[in-house]
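Hi Y.,

Following your request, here is the sequence exactly as I used it, all 515 residues.
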Amino acid sequence: MSSVLRFLSLISVTISMSTAVVSAEDKLILNARSRTEVEPGTNRWHSVTKPIEWIPQQTCIVVCDMWDDHWCKQSAARVGEMAPRMNEVIKAARTKGVFIIHCPSDTMDFYKDTPQRKLAQAAPVVKTDIPLERWVYLDKTREGEKLPIDDSDGGCDCDSPVKNYRAWSRQHPAIEIADRDAITESAEAFYLMKQRGIKNVIVMGVHTNMCVLGRPFSIRQMVRQGQNVVLMRDMTDTMYNPAKAPFVSHFTGNDLIAEHIEQYWCPTVNSTDLVGGEPFRFKDDQRKHLAILMSEPEYKTEVSLTEFARTELGKDFKVSLVFGDAQDGSVLPGLDVLKSADIALFSVRRRTLLPEQMTIVREFIAAGKPVVGIRTANHSFCLRDKPAPEGRTDWKEFDKDVIGGSYTNHHGAGPETTITVAEGAAVDTGILAGVNLKELIGKGSLYQVSPLQSAAMPLLIGTIPDKPSEPIAWLNKRADGGTTFYTSLGHVGDFQQPAFRQLLKNACLVLSQSP
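Below is the corresponding structure, written out as tokens. Let me know if you'd prefer a different format.
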């Protein structure tokens, strides 16, 4: 069969498949994560995952620049690590009827005589209202003045990079190219989609902050052309050097770009939607997953904790931020992230949750996972002297069961709290290590929390004039086997003190390493 006849045969097969009736069980079900701003102008975002259903024959995978080599050798190594898993994902998608478009830019000479390359070249040109440019740069009107990472140095995290030479010659050989796939580096990808009635695009490959956003076959271009687009967030990598702002782990840099895409361009999904198991994770990504729950209007910790997470935690943790709904703080959009978290930080005040959300909280605690609580966390899930409203549920014993205290009230505002070390507490190690206690002062009213539960161990004591001293920070060994660190600090003024921020960071680090 001649090459031309083979192309026509492939096109005919694809078109007939795309018009076939697809049963519910044959559809692609993707768990798409997107972000909506909590309130306009806050730069705080709800992260919510919802399933979408796509017909496989109306769907393609775009494999972006998964080259065989790169001038940044760390980047090349990560591509090599990811490529076998990506191949399994592509094979699973291909089996379902998804069309695969391989896009290893600058390597078309390697593929010039292949049927897959000629298949892309044979696609008829489509006139578009918005030009299919060779590259689409940052759209400042849509996504702001800059990306959340500084990649101005090229993004290489090698010790001594030799920059900007073309090290690649082909796609990584671990990614198989099947007979019915296509190969291109240009707008041909979109022409193929239109030829085949493809409306849905799954993008994977590298690098997320560069080619995955800017190439003519990738996210910005495809969204502008009206395609339904998702990024497979565990099948990508970012060119980011942790020596540049915001000075976080390379892998947190990945997360920040994925979140940026979710906010401004399209949802993201995981490879698990196609191959099951756990999401792909680079072997050097040893971060624990910290979920921070914030829903209390009194101390504005949705501001202070968000800033704390961005500046203090990005080197050591994968951080998920969960905010109370702006209209109903007892609804916590995106709370599902708690299911995969290793540790949780609570800053919640008198919320009565939907039963299904309270179940998520209770199951996290029952699993014995570590908890950090600040300020109002000891009355997170109950109203004052009132039952939960109809359709909501509370946890009145959260203070006793999880925090390990006996909160009754707080002293009046006014006097600052003097803080000293509790008898027997180790000053130079663990949670108190590096905390300058001479500069730590409680700026908010002193909480009345005595007596602590029998399994709680005081670390810091707070004192104000003419009142009994109170534990102000402690560890609680819970009945479920987990450990809680709690401090009644957390006032706006407390977050302005480096000593408090060190205390809170220490607590997260120490508890995240607990069994």
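Residues 73-96 form the longest helix (24 residues).

Thanks again,
Q.
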